[in-house]
Amino acid sequence: MGSVGKMDSPVPDYQPRYRNSWALIIGINAYQDLNPLNYAVNDAQAVYSLLTTELGFPPDKVTLLLDGDATRQAILDTWLELTDKAADPDDRVIMFFAGHGMTVQGAKAGEEIGCLVPVDGDIDKRRSLIRWDELLRTADMINAKHAFFIMDACYSGLAFHRAVPPGTQRFLSDMLQRFSRQVITAGKADQTVADGGGPQGKNSIFTGHLIEGLRGGASDANGVLTASALMHYVYEKVSKNPKSQQTPHYGHIEGDGDFVLRVSPMEDLFLDTLKTDQLVAPAPEMPETPAPATPPVQTFSAKRGYLDPIHPSFGRNEWSDRLGERRYGRDVSDGLTKAFCWVSFIMEPSAPDLVKVDLDHVEKWLPPLGSTSTEPYERFRMPFETRTTLSSTVWYDFYRNESDLWARYVWFDKGGNLEYADSSTLVFHDYNGQRRFYYVQLVGLFWQFIRFGTKALLHCNYRGGVRLWANLVGTRDTILVDFSQETGKDNQRWRDPTDREPFFEIDELPKLTSTERNIQLEYSFVVSAMKEPEGFDLVKDFAAKLGRAYNHNTSPRCFNYETDTFPWNQFWTRQSGRR
Predict the structure, then answer these.
(1) Is there a single domain that holds both residue 527 and residue 489?
(2) 342-349 and 465-473 as β-strands: parallel, antiparallel, unpaired?
(3) Each residue of 529-550: pLDDT tens digit?
(4) Residue range 272-291: mean pLDDT, rounded
(5) 98, 305, 313, 72: which is closest to 202 by C-alpha?
């Protein structure tokens, strides 16, 4: 007797867009053996209309089953057909059901099985019902990356998990490139779903508020509507409606992507590449959700050692271990040791699979990106020496007259990830035991790195979202020096702790030292939208937070006194000593 071989199931390479949109819409008023409903058909027709006229679902890819057509066999057959139809990994699928639901007790103690009741269902004959987990098992065979179940019915037996840690902002492209199965039900097993009472007077309370959310009520300020945002909107509206005796239940069944229902303009959802990526604010998790968050995907920054700022090995990787630092003073003669303190800036695309880096030629085109502009914030200076691997290229500078320790490096890999680290005397040194970070240099380099990294990713045809980390390693008991020495407001200037004038008394210096073991600041932005003044807004935030870490209770002292003017002449004077 022959056998059928196992089908290979490689991990799909999801793209930040949708290819096709499919839906099965069910509404049942006239049950054969149950009390009739009044608004379920209206609910299904309203959702069908919204999907096909406003949300990008072609009518020929949406099946509408009403009343007598919504038999158990028809529902299951139509749903099963989607395993063949929704075959592209970048498809999306919605199932909407308006009708009776119920919960059946399983054979195991405490086991609850949620069921939908088709038009020919008999609550005394379990075989006539449609088990929720039966629909879910079929969904496992549907290749579409996103499936969203909307159930205007009550039942239990759902197991939710958190998709991402609470409060985590996400890029639209990131959500579109991750698998997800999401569901919302109108209520729980012990609740009665209101048939009618919706805000428009033509639908149930649940579907009425659902329609409001789909029409834009649940969209964010940029016009983005995700399933998570919609579910939270409906949860809030229904649970607080004075006519309601039900509380929707919602969450992720599987995966950590997010079904995207609406963007502005809608055409962007179906382009080969998003015209403009966007940060999407997180939707609050349902209060009853007990499951822990799914472990987040490890970021490039974490892989480089910058996960936990309080960890003793924060920032240590194969390249940062090559950094050295200078120590000067009475007891040290121009000493060079392995670095304990340095600054690191990291830029990571949120969709690295979309970055097209030609590593065979990167040595030719990347270095000039820092010298093709007259703007000072775009004149990032690359190191001179180069090393290559199969997946990355690193540029680095040795300390003068030394052959093994580096002063700084730039690391760029095939995923478009950039890391810049600098332990040179331009940003840090130890003088007579007083450990100093240089404020103007840090802020100027941060500004230049933003522009340099943005141009590098644009060169690689990447226009989406990025995450940016600014890390200062070994900051505990260090002091921030190198304030702007140019005059500003009222012709005044900042007094630097290293001024020769007796301005800072010895007992005042400890108040200006950092108590943090390391400092890490995280930012997010969209590459195609990163221009000035957006870049300067990040710079000002970085400067202000860095100053507060050193107990500065004034405006950032890296700018001219009480202004937003950066002292580029001072920056370049110090940089002129760099090789």
Answers:
(1) yes
(2) antiparallel
(3) 888 777 899 999 999 999 999 9
(4) 74
(5) 98
| Helices and strands, counts by H and E, the chain | 11, 25
For residues 114 and 243, state if they share a domain. yes
Q: Do the beta carbons of residue 333 and residue 465 sit within 8 Å?
A: no
Query: What DSSP line would sit under 308-326, residue for residue?
Result: -TTSTTTT--TTGGGBEEE
Q: Are residues 135 and 235 in the same domain?
A: yes
Q: Please give the pLDDT value at position 3.
A: 45
Host domain of residue 223 = 21-280
How many residues are present in the chain? 579
Asked if residues 152 and 25 have their Cβ atoms less than 8 Å apart, the reply is no
- The type of residue at 169 is Q
Distance, in Å, from the CA atom of 25 to the CA atom of 257, rounded to the nearest integer, reads 23
pTM above 0.85, yes or no: no
Task: Give pLDDT, residue 9.
Answer: 47
Residue 513 DSSP one-character state = B
Query: Given this model, what pLDDT does residue 579 score?
Result: 45
- DSSP annotation of 475: -
- H or E segment to which residue 461 belongs: none
DSSP secondary structure string for all residues of 220-273: -TTS-EEHHHHHHHHHHHHHH-TT-----EEEEEEES---EEE-SSGGGGGSSS
Specify whether 328 is located in the same domain as 263. Answer: no
Domain count, the chain: 2
Instruction: Assess whether 451 and 309 both reside in one domain.
Output: yes
Helix (H, G, I), strand (E, B) or coil at 206: helix
Least confident piece of the model among 153-157, 522-526, 538-542, 566-570:
153-157
SS3 state at 570:
helix
5 pLDDT higher than 50:
no
Q: Kindly state the average pLDDT of the residues 385-410.
A: 89
CA 92 to CA 109: how far, in whole Å? 36
pLDDT digits (tens, 9 = 90+) for 400-427: 766 689 999 999 999 999 999 999 999 9
Q: Are 262 and 311 contained in the same domain?
A: no
Tell me the CATH number at 34.
Answer: 3.40.50.1460
Q: Indicate whether 450 and 335 sit together in one domain.
A: yes
Q: Which of 222, 246, 280 is the last residue of a domain?
A: 280
Helix residue spans in 193-259 (DSSP H)? 205-212, 227-240
**Confidence at 329, pLDDT banded by 50, 70, 90:** low
Neighbours of 134 (CB within 10 A): 15
Q: Identify the bridge partners of residue 329 per DSSP, sorted by sequence position.
A: 332
